[in-house]
Predict the structure of Integral membrane protein.
Amino acid sequence: MVGTGDDAVAVGDDALYLLTAVLLTPAQFPSVLGDDYPEACAALGLPPVAEGYGLVLGQDGDGARWTVATDDVSLVAVAIASWDCGMEHDLSPAERTVVATLPGWPLAVAVAAPGVPAPHDPAPELTEHALLAPPDTQTWGPAQRRLGADEIALQWAQWREQIDDADFAPAGSGASAGTAARPAAGEGTSPPRGGVRRVLAEARAYVDTPPPPGRVRSSFAPGEARTLRADGPGWSMVARTDDIAFVLLDEKPGEVLPVGRGPELPGLLEALDRMAVRPA
C-alpha cells in the first residue's frame, strides 16, 4: 500500500507528494488506532460517518507530513488494490472530496518522498488541528496488542501449526470452549486463564447487544471459512469460523492464548460472523 512518492495530490494551491494511503471505514481501518471504527476516527478528530474515509499520507514541498482525508473511499480503495498487485495507479482526490487536511501522520511510514527534505512535523502556525502521531507501540498496551492480532490474522497458518490440539483442556474441565494458555507460540501450556473466559463472555454479549461498528469484522479466509476479528476493552481475538481462536490481553504482555473449538466456540463464531461488518 505504498505509492511511488512521485505522485502529487493537489491540496488547495499546494501539492502533497503521495507516500501511502489507507482506508478508514467500519469494515477496514488501521486497528492500531482503536478497538473500533469510531475510536479510530476519534484518533484523527473525524466524525465516524457510515461511508468512511480514504486517508492519503504524504509530504509537502518542504517535507512536512500531512494526512488528507477524502470521502471518495472507492478512489482510494482502487488505488490500494492496484498497488498491492504491483500496478501503478494515480491517486488524486478531487478538492471537493477532501474532508480535512491534517498535520502529521497517524501511522508510521518508512518511506519518504524523493527530492524534498526529510519528513518532519509542520510548523504549528500552518494549521489549527492537533498534530497527528503514530500510537506508541514500543511497550505493550492496546496499540501493540491490536498489532499482534493483526499479525496473527495475516500469518494464520504459521501460528496455527504451532498449536497442538491435544494441549486444549477437554470439555467439562471448567475452561470455556476448551482453552489452553500459552505464553508464546512454541512454549509450554499453563492452566486456563480467567481472562480468556471473560473475553468469550464479552464477545457473546456482542451478539445480543451490538457493539460500536468495527468491533467485530469478518474477512475472507480459504475455503468456506471466514477470518473473524473482535476487539474489546483490553482484549483482541482472531479466529477462523472453521477452526480455533487466539486471544491477546492487555494484562498479559506478549502472550498469545489459543482457544480450542470445544462445545461453545463454533456457535459463538457463527453468531459473530452473522453480525460482523464486511468489506464491500
About this structure: The first strand starts at residue 8 and ends at 11. The radius of gyration is 20 Å. The CA atoms of residues 79 and 89 lie 6 Å apart. Confidence is low (pLDDT under 50) at residues 1-5, 170-189.
